[in-house]
Amino acid sequence: MAKNVDIKNEKYQNAIRLKYGDFTYSEIAQLLKVSHVTVKRWFRSDGLLKDEYERYEKERNKVRDKETDTVLMKHAETASKMLVSLMGAKSDAMKFRAAKTILDFVRGPAGGRDDDLNDEEYKRSSRQIEEILEKYKNKKTVGN
């Protein structure tokens, strides 16, 4: 005869929160004053709390993802402006790294492209970038 168990009770909900918080089965067992074997059984693939834990995990992960997206969006504009301003640095190496980072973001890293451009088109794009950088370099030298 199967027991009718309320998985929404405080002990089970605490077990779920602790597991999500990376507590070990032994630590959860100690805190809830039950056997670690019992806790293991709760969370195994056919366990009492498996489905409830998965629901809780999805819910918490959505919240974390939303918080992370908010933080990233808040700082993305600043980071973009910094990269663009680094293209005006004195060091050619710094300019190159900034330009490469921007291009990798926009076009994808070299060698990992899924577009229809052939080698000649890439060479032409490369020449255009070199021309732009040369114009910028000449502009800086004339203005100094």
Task: Provide an overview of this structure.
The protein has two domains: 1-75; 87-143, no CATH class. 73% of the residues lie in helices and 0% in strands. It contains six helices and no strands.
Question: Could you say which structural class the secondary elements and strand pairing correspond to?
Answer: mainly alpha
Task: Please outline the major beta sheet.
Answer: none
Ranges where pLDDT stays below 50 over 5 or more residues in a row are none
What gross morphology would you assign?
A: elongated
Radius of gyration computed on alpha carbons: 28 Å
Helix count? 6
- The termini sit apart by 88 Å
Order of helices and strands: HHHHHH
Strand content: under 5%
Structural domain count: 2
The proportion of residues forming helix, as a percent range, comes to: over 70%
* DSSP strand count: 0
- Mean pLDDT, to the nearest integer, reads 83
Protein name: Homeodomain phBC6A51-type domain-containing protein
Organism: Candidatus Komeilibacteria bacterium RIFOXYC1_FULL_37_11
List keywords for this structure.
mainly alpha; 144 residues; Homeodomain phBC6A51-type domain-containing protein; single chain
Short note summarizing the structure:
The chain has 144 residues and is mainly α. It contains 6 helices and no strands.
Summarize the topology.
Elements: H1 10-20, H2 25-32, H3 36-43, H4 50-86, H5 92-107, H6 119-143
Helix pairs in contact: 1-2, 1-4, 2-3, 4-5
